[in-house]
Amino acid sequence: MTDQEAQTATESSEVENNTSENVPDHGAGRGNEAARYRVKLRETEAERDTLNTKIQRYQWAEVERHLDRIENPEILQRLGHTLDDFLTEDGDVDPVKVATVSGQAADDLGLKAETHGPRMPLEGRAPSSGADTPKDVQQALRKALGIQ
Fold first, then answer.
1. What SS3 state is found at 2?
2. pTM (two decimals)
3. Is 86 buried (19+), middle (13-18) or exposed (0-12) by CB count in 10 A?
4. How far apart are CA 18 and CA 70, in angstroms?
5. 3-state DSSP helix/strand/coil percent for the chain, to nearest 5?
6. What are the backbone angles phi and psi of residue 125, rounded to the nearest 5°?
7. Cβ(140)–Cβ(132) under 8 Å?
8. If DSSP states are collapsed to H, E and C, what string results for 52-118?
9. Exposed, middle or buried by CB within 10 Å (0-12, 13-18, 19+), for 119?
């Protein structure tokens, strides 16, 4: 359930709450009591749905934190994986399941594994200013300083 759906459910329960409070009492105290319980039930259900939505967002964020070769968990969702594919029996995110499923998905998509850590272009080389020889460097410095 999305936040918008939860908000709609909450608003509809507030409308019902206002309606049940405006019901005339014709000696039917039990009917009003039952209506109040129904309203309370709907409010509690809407609150539960909102909390479940928040928990799922946190769980997906935890899945994303454990992803290796895939940067976005939405890719896994589009491949048909649900949050349940990554949870333990207790409802916690299992990093091993995340690594297994995301690794298999990356292989299926043809994404290459990073084998040697981050790539550093021109690693081990001295930085160059574009000047190839010491004489070129001297000329560049003289020009920059205004010395002829």
1. coil
2. 0.51
3. buried
4. 49
5. 65, 0, 35
6. -95, 150
7. no
8. HHHHHHHHHHHHHHHCCCCCCHHHHHHCCCCHHHHECCCCCECHHHHHHHHHHHHHHHCCCCCCCCC
9. exposed
Q: How far lies 109's CA from each of 63, 67, 106, in Å?
A: 19, 15, 5
Residue-wise DSSP of 19-56? HHHTS--SS-HHHHHHHHHHHHHHHHHHHHHHHHHHHH
- Reported as a single tens digit per residue, the pLDDT across 84-122 is 999 999 989 999 998 888 888 888 887 766 655 565 555
44's tokens: 């509690």
| For residue 44, pLDDT beyond 60 | yes
Distance between CA atoms of 122 and 67, rounded to whole angstroms?
28
The model's pLDDT over 46-85, given as tens digits with 9 standing for 90+, comes to 999 999 999 999 998 888 888 877 777 788 888 888 899 9
**What's the residue count for the chain?**
148
